């Protein structure tokens, strides 16, 4: 027997616990998807680079969102789902162009700038240059190297402490962000329920069978979502590093997929209903497994010396 949720305010109708959990999980998933790409976009902007992001990962993910949007239009799903599908595609395009800009365009511009500067500058070995110029350059370089080597030893302990501090701060921020997403999703569902914008029958198929084409597009999007993370996992493995990737990005992905699948299963355990939502369940569970692999890579490669902060760059 399903225990109804006791109304918190006068006038609210009793709601079965499973329906309440389904609504809350769906709302948390929705908020997770809305803010999903924001951490990675900010990470790329802060670093001025997107070298850690696999271009194939974003491109395949965009194809999955396009297939999902077409399937939503074909299946005449709710207008909110269609609007969200459009939003996801736009967000993917923004991240895709940002990755292309940082990984390719800025690299070409930097190469051209360095070439122009090297062409315009005089050759230090040119015999026509004054003889006093070369010793000054050598002395300055030796002093700079001496300063870096002498600064390396006393700063080694502070670098370790700084790394531990930055890790603890990052973990606290990620926990706070995930908790905030869960709180916002729960509060959003409660407000929608109280205002009548959400009901227990929302999202049900009302006995209507999904069109074959929309169902096939759902399976296609699930396959694309499953294949999208493979290039990123391979890239991390070859580089032995997750530098440039936002951990919060994958945390929100895991939270969104987990709450989405839980929302479907809480709504109904009817075989026909699960069959209609099977593509999205497969995509959610599969991407969760791949996200766990990326979390393991974050943990393993964080011990890599190349992941440690560079002392020399901080001294100069």
Automatic annotation (TrEMBL):
Residue ranges of the TM segments: 20-42, 54-75, 81-103, 175-196, 216-234, 246-265, 277-296
Compositional bias ranges of the Basic residues kind: 134-151
Record key words, sorted: Membrane, Transmembrane, Transmembrane helix
GO cellular component: lytic vacuole membrane
Family: Belongs to the laat-1 family.
Entry annotated with the keyword Transmembrane helix: yes
Annotated Polar residues bias: 117-128
Alphabetized InterPro entries for the sequence: LAAT-1 (IPR051415), PQ-loop_rpt (IPR006603)
GO function terms (MF aspect): basic amino acid transmembrane transporter activity
Protein name according to UniProt: PQ loop repeat-domain-containing protein
Keyword Membrane tagged: yes
Catalytic reactions of this protein: L-histidine(out) + L-arginine(in) = L-histidine(in) + L-arginine(out)
Recorded topology in the membrane: Multi-pass membrane protein
Organism domain of life: Eukaryota
Chief place of localization: membrane
């Amino acid at each position: 027997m399903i225990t109804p949720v006791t109304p918190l305010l006068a006038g609210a109708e009793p709601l079965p616990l499973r329906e309440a959990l389904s609504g809350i999980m769906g709302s948390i998933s929705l908020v997770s998807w809305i803010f999903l790409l924001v951490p990675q976009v900010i990470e790329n902007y802060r670093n001025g680079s997107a070298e850690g992001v696999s271009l194939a990962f974003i491109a395949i993910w965009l194809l999955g969102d396009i297939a999902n949007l077409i399937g939503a239009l074909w299946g005449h799903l709710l207008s909110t789902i269609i609007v969200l599908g459009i939003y996801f595609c736009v967000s993917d395009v923004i991240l895709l162009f940002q990755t292309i800009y940082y990984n390719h365009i800025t690299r070409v511009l930097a190469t051209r700038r360095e070439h122009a500067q090297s062409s315009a500058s005089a050759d230090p070995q040119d015999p026509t240059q004054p003889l006093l110029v070369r010793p000054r350059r050598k002395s300055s370089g030796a002093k700079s190297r001496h300063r870096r080597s002498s600064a390396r030893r006393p700063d080694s302990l502070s670098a370790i402490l700084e790394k531990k501090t930055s890790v603890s701060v990052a973990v606290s921020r990620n926990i706070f962000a995930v908790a905030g997403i869960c709180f916002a999703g729960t509060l959003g569902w409660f407000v929608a329920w109280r205002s009548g914008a959400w009901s227990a029958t929302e999202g049900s198929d009302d006995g209507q069978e999904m069109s074959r084409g929309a169902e096939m597009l759902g399976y296609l999007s699930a396959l694309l979502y499953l294949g999208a993370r493979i290039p990123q996992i391979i890239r991390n493995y070859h580089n032995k590093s997750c530098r440039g990737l936002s951990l919060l990005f994958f945390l929100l992905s895991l939270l969104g997929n987990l709450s989405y699948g839980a929302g479907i299963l809480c709504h109904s355990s009817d075989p026909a209903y699960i069959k209609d939502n099977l593509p999205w369940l497969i995509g959610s569970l599969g991407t969760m497994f791949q996200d766990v692999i990326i979390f393991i890579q974050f943990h393993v490669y964080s011990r890599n010396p190349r992941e440690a902060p560079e002392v020399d760059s901080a001294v100069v």
